Amino acid sequence: MYIKRLRIKNYKSFLDSGEIEVKKDIFAFIGQNNTGKSAILDSIQVFFPKCKKTIAGGDFHKNTTEDINIEICFGGVDEDYLASTVYNDKIEKQNIKIKELFKKYENEQDEKILSQIQKQQEKLDELKSTEYSSAVDKYKIYDDELYINMVASKGGKITKKYYNKQDEELKDADLNKILPEIKVIPALRDPKTESTAGNNSYLKDLIQMLDEESKTNITLEGNILSYNEINEVLSEETKRRCNSLAESITSYYNQAVGGNEFKVVIDASVNISKGTTYYTTITDQTTGISNDILNCGTGYQSMIILSILETYVQISQSQTQYILLIEEPEVYLHPELQRRMIDTLIRISDNNQVVFTSHSPITVSKLAGDNIKLVEKQNGEARILCISPKKIINELGIKPDDILYYKGIIFVEGKDDYEVVVSLINKIDNNLIDKINVIQAHSCQNLKFYANAELLMNINFNIPVLILRDSDVKDPNVLKESLYGEIAATLLEEPQFLDFEEEELTNKKDKLKSSIYVLLEHSIEYYFIEDKFLYEFASDLEELNCAIECYECQYRKQLREALNGNNQVNNFEAYFQPKRFLKGYPDAKERDREYKEKSFKDRWERLSDDCQCENKYKIDNYLKVRDEIIENVKRIYISENSFFKYIINKHSLDILKESKLNEVIQLVQGLIDEIRN
Predict the structure, then answer these.
(1) What share of the chain is helix, strand, coil (3-state, %, to 5)?
(2) Which tens digit of pLDDT belongs to each residue from 227-246?
(3) What pLDDT, on the 0 to 100 scale, is given for residue 192?
(4) Among residues 618, 609, 584, 587, which one has the least CA distance to residue 599?
(5) Does residue 664 contact residue 644 with C-beta atoms inside 8 Å?
(6) Looking at residues 555-567, what average pLDDT do you find?
(7) b/e burial code for range 536-553 (CB count within 10 A of at least 16 → b)
(8) pLDDT in tens, 67-83
(9) The domain 399-521+668-676: what is its CATH number?
(10) What is d(CA 586, CA 569) in angstroms, rounded to the nearest whole number?
(11) Secondary structure letter of residue 180 according to DSSP
(12) C-beta separation of 329 from 345 below 8 A
């Protein structure tokens, strides 16, 4: 569940913000000081009933007597989400009954018990259906969207009420059931108002977020424990987890400051009735001096926050559960650490929505145009505006250091492309890993925006640039010409180019065209479908080779037909793109994956009669090996976070160059050679 649209009326500097479209992954509000950026994050906080921030009389816009209205439309409120939040307890009770019956059947082998299991399963299905319909009706959910209007009124005291789409009042208890958790990192991290152990500490919330992701070692083995024994077991277990978390945070922190003299210590005590209290200190091991982290300066705190978030990325395997609200995540961070901060936030946004404010061109340079809004103030009223590359540059200001820090820039589309390129840079020359800015555009549509922003800043600096995109189901040469045309046409409208002589302008256009490369294959995943990369994920090498041959046969045939217009592009994307071989359907909703897998196998089995592979294994073998690979690759994602990074790190550069991946290696190597020269 995530914020999809937001509207603020009569709150602080906003008379009426208008409807603000917010992206589900990461979203930034930029602008100069005192324009209203913080008011947006504050409005989200006061909206949530459990949040500590309250509305004061001075928060009403220009002291108006009109009500404050904060309207939020949430997306992703589907059946799976409702089952995991609103009526999860009822489903769990029914699941327990079914599990107990299965155990009983295992012991007694009585066919009557199977009948009981069937009835209880039918009850579970009926329960899910009934509860889902009830929740949809109660909250007035339409198309997996939930609209809620918070109304705050002045009077003897300020009151808040909540209404659904049909103006029916919703109680706080009902909202607390369905709304996601928010985690807030303020810009003013003041030691006077913050305490690691305090109830209002943002740092306590972050540590708890980490702690909730950590695995426990608690085993009770059927023993009945007293209240005090349970409390003691939980306390010891929490301390163990905190020690492990502190080691990871310490490692990332020392990387950030460039030394090994600091140690972060997290201690915790558990009281079942009151919750967990965390005590967090940082020790300079050369002097032995320790301080509560929240008594340190804002710069130190920013580095601790970065270290905590990097640790969260390292250990987290959960689905979307938080909305992170962060004011100025880059505050007092060196440019290199700012880049690490935004990279970390982007990775966190894979599974959690991140909304932040920023003054940093470095931070927002890795976001697409649709993921940024500009906040301006006119006549005392804040306004939300769309942005362009030029607006970002004019509003935030671009210093030469922001560009010259980097020796090269690479634009890629998605997360997998990013992981591959960064891993290859590290493999070829790890001294350049922090000197080449790899920007993830999230989609091919965003590449034009990114390229314009970076190239506008790059006019007077001769920095090598590589714009890399997938060919998808299109001709690579046509795609290159199209992308070049879009970027060049936009750039030539900028006044910076009016001063160039024709020859100089032609040179710049030629350089731009030479910097664009479209992969010869559908997508980056294709380059990893090789026996030398996949042998450890399959039980039989011969079967693996035959499965790859079978896939190659259909991949070529179906792609050719799609390019010629004899096959629907959607058909190729659904059943034959390389991602389906290695990952299955990770991009589909969990409830749809089983259906999509069945549809996938049905489609491939229909190809059995005209399979042209010249080996003894056919489609059945391909499907069997694919299932095995997907299951084993999942384990890599759990332990390593990236299958592609794992493969590149495991093999020598010479081995990688002997594979299909050499096409990408040569591109990265070319940019590195240009930097070295």
Answers:
(1) 55, 15, 30
(2) 566 667 777 777 887 788 78
(3) 42
(4) 584
(5) no
(6) 84
(7) ebbeeeebbbbbbbbbeb
(8) 999 999 999 888 888 88
(9) 3.40.50
(10) 19
(11) P
(12) yes
